[in-house]
């Protein structure tokens, strides 16, 4: 579609040229990466090069990167009873923040009666005092907290949470899917034991993700059983083109990270200021540290479904929050957890920027918002 403006980067990103080239080259290969002949070894080389690239990007060892079909599968693999760290017993419970992605809220392989939810503040940040209370005098727990919320962009106090969890003998899993490529992330620096990442949020292909585990973690049971691929952690022939594209995308994203972060923040701040200057718009998690590219906003009387359609008709792609609801526009569980009334949550619209967003795109979005505001909010 000509003259479209894409402001839904948190849902998915365009494919980077580097990833496309890597995938095209991989599709030319014949071999199965588990085969020992020359053709198989060539495919294996691409897989291991990408594994090393991901490991470098997040501060892990290559042997601790497990490729999966997507971030959702990586989350399911991570949320496993019986995980053990270098010290301490196996985890017996799962605690997740109330603002997690649906694949984490589903609990993985933990039964519902062994799950608990961590409250968040009005700003959309995990309540660490509540986390402490949930861990006190209880068996070791696996705790799952996303690094950055996909709807509000609010960054979570991961390092502080890791200290609390480890002191209680537990383990910490972080969903870093929205963080990778937008802010610096290192699994060791934040003290996480497991981290989930995904290719299509950083300019890689859809349908490929990874789980990164800290050195010394044991007890990770495969979800998919069969062959011995991925060091016996995930059976099934590896998606060589997808993995090659993932590796190329992460290299490109990390190389451009400082410049892209500054540029997106500048554009986001301008967009946010002008949005708030019209029709009484408010921004969620405004008082929290946020991703440099994300705005979730509403205005009195705004209906998200109508607004998303209105923006679309003006040539602007935006969303009402998470894209993982089968195309449905529905009230945000994130805003509900933050304590907002359902009527307010139903009016939330998300705009998310990326590396190719231009100042003219911001102009177009603001022009559309002024038109929609006059039409939708003022009759």
TrEMBL record:
Catalysis performed (reactions): (sulfur carrier)-H + L-cysteine = (sulfur carrier)-SH + L-alanine
Any one GO MF annotation of this record: iron-sulfur cluster binding
Keyword Iron-sulfur appears in the UniProt entry: yes
InterPro entries: Aminotrans_V_dom, Cysteine_dSase, PyrdxlP-dep_Trfase, PyrdxlP-dep_Trfase_major, PyrdxlP-dep_Trfase_small
Cofactor requirements of the protein: pyridoxal 5'-phosphate
Xref: Gene3D superfamilies: 1.10.260.50, Aspartate Aminotransferase, domain 1, Type I PLP-dependent aspartate aminotransferase-like (Major domain)
Domain Aminotransferase class V: start-end pairs: 5-364
Alphabetical keyword list: Iron, Iron-sulfur, Metal-binding, Pyridoxal phosphate, Transferase
Membership in a protein family: Belongs to the class-V pyridoxal-phosphate-dependent aminotransferase family. NifS/IscS subfamily.
Biological role: Catalyzes the removal of elemental sulfur atoms from cysteine to produce alanine. Seems to participate in the biosynthesis of the nitrogenase metalloclusters by providing the inorganic sulfur required for the Fe-S core formation.
PANTHER family recorded: CYSTEINE DESULFURASE, CYSTEINE DESULFURYLASE FAMILY MEMBER
Name of the protein in its database record: Cysteine desulfurase
Biological source species: Bradyrhizobium betae
């Amino acid at each position: 579609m000509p003259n479209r403006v894409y402001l839904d980067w948190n849902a998915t990103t365009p494919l980077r040229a580097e990833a496309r080239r890597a995938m095209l080259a991989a599709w030319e290969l014949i071999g199965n990466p588990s085969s020992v002949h020359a053709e198989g070894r060539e495919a294996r080389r691409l897989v291991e090069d990408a594994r090393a690239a991901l490991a470098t990007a997040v501060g892990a060892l290559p042997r601790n990167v497990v490729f999966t079909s997507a971030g959702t599968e990586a989350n399911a693999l991570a949320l496993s009873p019986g995980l053990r760290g270098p010290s301490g017993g196996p985890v017996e419970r799962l605690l997740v923040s109330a603002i997690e992605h649906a694949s984490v809220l589903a609990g993985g392989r933990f039964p519902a009666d062994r799950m608990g939810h961590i409250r968040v503040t009005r700003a959309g940040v995990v309540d660490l005092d509540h986390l402490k209370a949930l861990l006190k005098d209880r068996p070791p727990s696996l705790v799952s907290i996303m690094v950055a919320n996909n709807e509000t962009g609010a960054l979570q106090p991961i390092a502080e949470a890791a200290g609390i969890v480890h002191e209680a003998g537990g383990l910490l899993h972080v969903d870093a899917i929205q963080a990778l490529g937008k802010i610096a992330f290192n699994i060791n620096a934040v003290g996480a034991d497991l981290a989930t990442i995904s290719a299509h949020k950083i300019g890689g292909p859809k349908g490929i993700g990874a789980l990164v585990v800290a050195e010394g973690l044991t007890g990770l049971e495969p979800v998919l059983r069969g062959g011995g691929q991925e060091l016996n952690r995930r059976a099934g022939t590896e998606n060589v083109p997808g993995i090659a594209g993932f590796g190329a995308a992460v290299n490109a994203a990390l190389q451009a990270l400082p410049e892209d972060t500054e540029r997106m923040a500048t554009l986001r701040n301008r967009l946010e200021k002008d949005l708030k200057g019209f029709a009484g718009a408010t921004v969620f998690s405004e008082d929290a540290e946020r991703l440099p590219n994300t705005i979730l906003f509403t205005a009195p009387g705004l209906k998200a479904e109508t607004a998303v359609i209105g923006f679309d008709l003006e040539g602007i792609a935006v969303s009402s929050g998470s894209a993982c609801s089968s195309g449905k526009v529905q009230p945000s569980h994130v805003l509900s957890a933050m304590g907002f009334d359902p009527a307010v949550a139903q009016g939330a619209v998300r705009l998310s920027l990326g590396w190719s967003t231009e100042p003219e795109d911001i102009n177009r979005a603001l022009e559309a918002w002024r038109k929609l505001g006059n039409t939708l909010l003022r009759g």
